[in-house]
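Fill in residues.
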């Protein structure tokens, strides 16, 4: 059925009222699909954490549909403003889903984390004032085209994985974060142990 025929069908009085009632329910269903998917991702990361002797713990937003919703790993031995590993914008409300190593506050690269910035750049991550390095999931791995709840392809893809045994897509997404965690958590722990860094403006003679 063509779009014109669908619009004509929905424009009939007896159909339009039902269509308008369904619209918010469909939006809610899209968010539910994403929430269930991220539940599987969180479960996989949590299982990997339990297998090792790590000082890190899971952190995630209560509202998955928040523009800055997150799911990631935080250092349990440091203050709230610290470096962490995270996915952000979990339903793509602000931008397509992205992930990387977050600084904990907005600042330019410090002497302490500059080496880590360079290492992540070699892995095709981008640096900005909030992130040591970040990347969109969809750009990182073209087999993981996860963008937003408004993207029909993403919703169908995640819903399919939610109903598959073993949830292979969720495991692959969890592996993206786990890969950089395994590579860099020791260096990030050292950065966190020295947090907060002195503000150079506090030392004008240096």
């Amino acid at each position: 059925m063509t779009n014109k025929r669908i619009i004509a069908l929905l424009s009939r009085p007896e159909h339009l009222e039902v269509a308008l009632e369904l619209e918010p329910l469909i939006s809610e269903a899209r968010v539910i699909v994403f929430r269930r998917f991220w539940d599987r991702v969180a479960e996989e990361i949590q299982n990997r954490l339990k297998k090792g002797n790590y000082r890190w713990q899971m952190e995630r937003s209560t509202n998955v549909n928040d523009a800055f919703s997150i799911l990631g790993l935080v250092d349990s031995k440091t203050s709230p403003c610290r470096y962490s590993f995270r996915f952000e914008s979990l339903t793509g409300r602000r931008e397509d889903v992205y992930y990387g190593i977050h600084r904990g506050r907005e600042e330019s690269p410090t002497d302490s984390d500059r080496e880590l910035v360079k290492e992540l750049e070699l892995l095709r991550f981008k640096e900005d004032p909030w992130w040591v390095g970040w990347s969109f999931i969809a750009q990182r791995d073209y087999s993981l085209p996860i963008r937003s709840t408004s993207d029909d392809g993403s919703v169908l893809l995640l819903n399919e994985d939610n109903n598959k045994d073993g949830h292979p897509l969720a495991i692959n997404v969890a592996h993206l974060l786990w890969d950089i965690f395994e590579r860099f958590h020791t260096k990030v722990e050292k950065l966190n142990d020295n947090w907060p860094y002195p503000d150079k403006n506090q030392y004008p003679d240096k």
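The first strand starts at residue 56 and ends at 60.
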